[in-house]
What does this fold into?
Amino acid sequence: MRITHTHRFDAPLEDVWAMMTDRGFAHARAVAMGTETAEVDVDEPADGSRVVVLRADVPTSSIPPEIRSLVGRSLAVTYTEAWEPPTEADRVGTFAVEIAGAPGHVAGAIGLTADGEATDLLATGDVTAHVPLIGSMVERAVASAVERALAAQLEAADAWLTR
It folds into this structure.
Protein backbone atom coordinates (compact mmCIF):
# COMPACT_ATOMS: atom_id res chain seq x y z
CA MET A 1 0.00 0.00 0.00
CA ARG A 2 1.38 3.39 -1.00
CA ILE A 3 1.46 6.37 1.38
CA THR A 4 2.19 10.01 0.55
CA HIS A 5 2.42 12.89 2.98
CA THR A 6 3.18 16.56 2.33
CA HIS A 7 3.76 19.39 4.76
CA ARG A 8 4.82 23.03 4.50
CA PHE A 9 7.05 24.51 7.17
CA ASP A 10 6.98 28.28 7.64
CA ALA A 11 10.75 28.31 8.06
CA PRO A 12 13.76 28.31 5.75
CA LEU A 13 15.39 25.06 4.69
CA GLU A 14 18.44 25.50 6.93
CA ASP A 15 16.26 25.87 10.03
CA VAL A 16 14.14 22.84 9.14
CA TRP A 17 17.26 20.78 8.33
CA ALA A 18 18.83 21.71 11.66
CA MET A 19 15.63 20.67 13.46
CA MET A 20 15.19 17.39 11.59
CA THR A 21 18.71 16.29 12.49
CA ASP A 22 18.66 17.54 16.09
CA ARG A 23 18.79 14.96 18.90
CA GLY A 24 16.47 17.07 21.08
CA PHE A 25 13.88 17.27 18.33
CA ALA A 26 14.09 13.50 17.83
CA HIS A 27 13.05 13.12 21.47
CA ALA A 28 10.23 15.64 20.92
CA ARG A 29 9.03 13.53 17.97
CA ALA A 30 8.89 10.47 20.18
CA VAL A 31 6.88 12.32 22.83
CA ALA A 32 4.47 13.60 20.17
CA MET A 33 3.80 10.01 19.07
CA GLY A 34 2.91 9.01 22.62
CA THR A 35 5.80 6.61 23.05
CA GLU A 36 6.56 4.99 26.37
CA THR A 37 10.36 5.01 26.02
CA ALA A 38 12.70 6.33 23.37
CA GLU A 39 16.34 6.02 22.38
CA VAL A 40 17.81 8.41 19.82
CA ASP A 41 20.98 8.20 17.73
CA VAL A 42 22.14 10.88 15.28
CA ASP A 43 25.14 10.02 13.14
CA GLU A 44 26.86 13.04 11.59
CA PRO A 45 29.53 12.01 9.04
CA ALA A 46 31.95 14.66 7.75
CA ASP A 47 30.29 14.71 4.30
CA GLY A 48 27.17 16.37 5.77
CA SER A 49 24.93 13.35 5.46
CA ARG A 50 22.91 12.41 8.54
CA VAL A 51 21.33 9.27 9.93
CA VAL A 52 18.66 9.72 12.58
CA VAL A 53 17.48 6.59 14.39
CA LEU A 54 14.61 6.60 16.86
CA ARG A 55 13.83 3.43 18.81
CA ALA A 56 10.65 3.51 20.87
CA ASP A 57 8.07 1.35 22.55
CA VAL A 58 4.73 2.39 21.09
CA PRO A 59 1.44 1.39 22.74
CA THR A 60 -0.75 -0.78 20.51
CA SER A 61 -3.84 1.23 21.45
CA SER A 62 -3.44 3.06 18.12
CA ILE A 63 -4.05 -0.03 16.00
CA PRO A 64 -7.24 -2.07 15.45
CA PRO A 65 -8.02 -4.63 18.17
CA GLU A 66 -7.95 -7.57 15.75
CA ILE A 67 -4.31 -6.80 14.96
CA ARG A 68 -3.29 -6.15 18.58
CA SER A 69 -3.63 -9.85 19.27
CA LEU A 70 -0.78 -10.45 16.80
CA VAL A 71 1.68 -8.13 18.55
CA GLY A 72 0.93 -7.71 22.27
CA ARG A 73 0.69 -4.57 24.45
CA SER A 74 3.37 -2.49 22.78
CA LEU A 75 5.44 -2.41 19.63
CA ALA A 76 9.20 -2.00 19.56
CA VAL A 77 9.50 0.43 16.64
CA THR A 78 12.71 1.57 14.96
CA TYR A 79 12.37 4.61 12.71
CA THR A 80 15.39 5.51 10.58
CA GLU A 81 16.00 8.51 8.33
CA ALA A 82 19.14 8.39 6.18
CA TRP A 83 19.81 11.80 4.63
CA GLU A 84 22.25 12.34 1.75
CA PRO A 85 24.80 15.18 1.93
CA PRO A 86 22.94 18.49 1.61
CA THR A 87 22.65 20.59 -1.52
CA GLU A 88 21.76 24.27 -1.66
CA ALA A 89 18.19 23.67 -2.84
CA ASP A 90 17.10 20.54 -0.99
CA ARG A 91 17.71 17.62 1.33
CA VAL A 92 16.82 14.09 0.24
CA GLY A 93 16.92 10.76 1.93
CA THR A 94 15.14 7.57 2.78
CA PHE A 95 13.12 6.44 5.76
CA ALA A 96 12.16 3.08 7.18
CA VAL A 97 9.86 1.92 9.95
CA GLU A 98 10.61 -1.54 11.33
CA ILE A 99 8.34 -3.10 13.93
CA ALA A 100 9.92 -5.93 15.89
CA GLY A 101 7.75 -9.03 15.89
CA ALA A 102 5.13 -7.50 13.62
CA PRO A 103 4.30 -8.65 10.11
CA GLY A 104 4.68 -5.27 8.43
CA HIS A 105 7.13 -2.50 7.67
CA VAL A 106 7.30 0.82 5.84
CA ALA A 107 10.07 2.18 3.59
CA GLY A 108 10.29 5.15 1.29
CA ALA A 109 11.79 8.48 0.32
CA ILE A 110 11.75 11.79 2.16
CA GLY A 111 12.70 15.23 0.94
CA LEU A 112 12.87 18.84 2.02
CA THR A 113 12.75 21.54 -0.66
CA ALA A 114 13.33 25.25 -0.18
CA ASP A 115 10.60 27.63 -1.32
CA GLY A 116 11.73 31.11 -0.39
CA GLU A 117 11.41 31.45 3.38
CA ALA A 118 9.36 28.23 3.59
CA THR A 119 10.26 24.55 3.21
CA ASP A 120 8.17 21.78 1.70
CA LEU A 121 8.37 18.21 2.97
CA LEU A 122 7.38 15.24 0.83
CA ALA A 123 7.41 11.69 2.17
CA THR A 124 6.34 8.76 0.00
CA GLY A 125 6.59 5.12 0.87
CA ASP A 126 5.24 1.62 0.70
CA VAL A 127 3.66 -0.33 3.52
CA THR A 128 4.03 -4.08 3.21
CA ALA A 129 2.71 -6.91 5.35
CA HIS A 130 3.38 -10.54 4.58
CA VAL A 131 0.43 -12.16 6.31
CA PRO A 132 -1.74 -14.68 4.47
CA LEU A 133 -5.39 -13.66 4.13
CA ILE A 134 -5.22 -10.50 6.26
CA GLY A 135 -2.15 -8.79 4.76
CA SER A 136 -4.13 -5.93 3.26
CA MET A 137 -5.89 -5.27 6.58
CA VAL A 138 -2.51 -5.17 8.35
CA GLU A 139 -1.14 -2.81 5.66
CA ARG A 140 -4.09 -0.44 6.10
CA ALA A 141 -3.67 -0.46 9.89
CA VAL A 142 0.08 0.17 9.67
CA ALA A 143 -0.40 2.93 7.06
CA SER A 144 -3.01 4.63 9.24
CA ALA A 145 -0.77 4.44 12.32
CA VAL A 146 2.21 5.82 10.37
CA GLU A 147 0.15 8.70 8.99
CA ARG A 148 -1.16 9.59 12.46
CA ALA A 149 2.37 9.41 13.91
CA LEU A 150 3.71 11.58 11.09
CA ALA A 151 0.97 14.16 11.63
CA ALA A 152 1.81 14.29 15.35
CA GLN A 153 5.53 14.64 14.58
CA LEU A 154 4.88 17.48 12.12
CA GLU A 155 2.72 19.30 14.66
CA ALA A 156 5.63 18.99 17.11
CA ALA A 157 7.97 20.24 14.37
CA ASP A 158 5.90 23.36 13.76
CA ALA A 159 5.92 24.07 17.49
CA TRP A 160 9.70 23.44 17.65
CA LEU A 161 10.36 25.95 14.86
CA THR A 162 8.40 28.70 16.63
CA ARG A 163 10.28 28.45 19.94
Q: What stands out?
A: The longest helix spans residues 135-161. The mean pLDDT is 86. Strands lie at 2-9, 37-43, 50-59, 74-83, 90-100, 104-115, 118-129. The longest strand covers residues 104-115.
